[in-house]
Known about the structure:
Blueprint: E1 3-11, H1 15-24, E2 38-48, E3 55-65, H2 69-74, H3 77-80, E4 86-97, E5 102-109, E6 117-125, H4 135-138, E7 148-157, H5 164-172, H6 181-192, H7 194-207, H8 209-230, H9 232-245
Antiparallel strand pairs: 1-7, 2-3, 3-4, 4-5, 5-6, 6-7
Helix pairs in contact: 1-8, 5-6, 8-9
Amino acid sequence: MVLTHTTNHTYSHPFPTVTLAFFLRYYSPQLNPFSSHVLSTDTISSHVDPKTGRLHTTRIHMKKTRLPSAVVKLLPSSVTGGGGDKSSYVLETSVVDIKEGWMKTESKNLNYTGVLSVVEQQHYSVSPPDQAAPAASRAAIRPLTPNTFVTTTFSYRSTLGGGKRQEKTVGEVADDNEEHGPRRFGEWISGWGARRIQRSIESIASNKTDDQMVKSRDGMRIVLERLRNNGVLSVLREIRELKRREGKTLLEA
């Protein structure tokens, strides 16, 4: 079972500015104070398809994260590693079609997937979600519009205790000093019922979505306002200077 959560939002900024803000939102907490949990961002690949003119980018973010306290209380520490802050990786892929006026992104966690897999998919467009662009207009560059519409869908899936493969993975992270750790966990999972635990984990994570979305949109709003008020070149120079102080260039970030 996969639990999903979908929301719609409108940014009062043109599409090119919103796409730029998306790629800049994690560069520095000084640019976006809501990105202080992002420890690093690295670009794995980026290229423009010569046939379609679309920009394809893959990035990996290392974030400071914390499992929901309810999940930590629900599961043994051999599975969650206990409470407190941890570092985790998020893989982000994106495709931008500046001519047709849309961008699709997908982000998914690479850690703790045995406990919970979270996939965030976003579709940015110059057209509202319920208004598809006519085929004729997609053939030419679309005129700038003052708004950009985004639909965000979160998908939550827990496979904890779903089979022998998962039980083996859990056993591998168990404390080496705990004899029969995998066996005890298996008995505990059976007592509660795997599906009941999975549904509980998915529900706990889904309930935090609204708060996460508010912070994400506030961060985007701050970056967008800085781009509007200071200009793109000024913001890029500021980022370049910040990275220079950190011993990195803008292209290395």
